[in-house]
């Protein structure tokens, strides 16, 4: 071992003592070996060779540059930069090392320094030289990293001069920059503009590769047009491509998909045959055949086609597989197999499928509303509608879903969208009206109810809704006729009878009030529903019964009640109970809000006894108590305000 070490030392001394020419020859020999190892992928051999070179000459620029490349590959980027800069210091005129430094700076995310180095190279290099092309290429890559797509495309085109073959390469790289620009565009208009820039690169070009690239770009443009809702324009572009090149399967399949979305079934059938001839497209052909069958209401056939295609895709989930699951869910829905429909729909949505047509969005919305947990499907419906697959029903379904989740503002926005598309939807106008009433916009609610009622004048439900909002607005005289219609027609909703009776009594329409009270006391109910009604009969009915029984000419059946509130009210009427006793009892409740509501009602109906006696001071005091304790949602609050104003 000692002899071997001595031999190595002697060799090193010998190499240092070599004449300059011999040493240079030995250095070049070591470098050639190192470079050869690097080129064949022997990185360890290359590293050993570089080490030998740098022992002979620590400032050997080619070895330093090769070392820099090797370190860069090993992700030792700072060390790579140091080697590149040492190479430049040793050979400042060599532009290759400066380009290498720019590349390393780019890897360090020091883009400004990298661009400055590139500009230095471009200023020194001969236009069209290898160094100039490499620097321009690197400049294009750095511009892409900065998402400056136009600058990147310009740099790539400058990289490769006007020679045909080189120009093709530059055009391809510039196309990639524009495609990235399209992919990152904030909207479809921006994406279309970027694709148009790429298309312009190929205008007037010849050669098979250029024409194929142009065709691919035209197809991509058509797909974007379809996403933007410009399906007719997209169809025209694709028809032209297929007409010129019937073997262009990408264009054929894209056109077939558009025909399916536009429900042009005869045109679609003409394209299915050439697609079916290609075994690799068997699943697509089955999907399209299923769409045609479903459109013709051959649900069983359609489902069979979709499931056959799903079997072909079983081991390789694709976007098509998710579309197949979606359409299988439609088949299950039509077959009334709702659980299976939901399962298929969830598989489609979990896979990232977003409805592509208004009808698809409606299908999703209908199934969505049958779910207890709306969250997994709700974002997909929103995404589908915002993509332009919009319809009045789709937005209305989204609005209903948001209402179920208690998201009133989002619900209102969706209902507005629905009514913008189709203004004369009585049901949606009424739904928006109820939402506006809920959030306190009574005037807005009234406008919607009035419009809905004009569209469906015979609807008792709309009569009730309009009467209720008029009541909440304090317009008692206008509310009463609508409440009367609702009470007479919606006979199983007994609380409407009592509400109308109260309203009519306030207006002095005692016969109308008595008729509605009579209907309330003898409802068209049976069994458990009747038992429940009798167990929860309102004290207001007892108050009204006492008041109406004292009116001349009014006949009303006896009231059987054991309510203490009713007993105290009758005792007050006969002078056997005080106001305090009645109101104290009314204030007993599980919650303060409920207590205030009961005191409001009791105060108002006590006031009606004082009104009948013409005790104006007591009347006013009790009406004020009703207003102070109640809230605008309480009918007696509105009755009290109206009576103070009109008596």
From TrEMBL:
Residues 1-22 form the signal peptide. InterPro entries: TPR-like_helical_dom_sf, TPR_rpt. It holds the Pfam family TPR_16. SMART domains: TPR. Keywords: Signal, TPR repeat. TPR repeats lie at residues 392-425, 426-459. This is Uncharacterized protein.
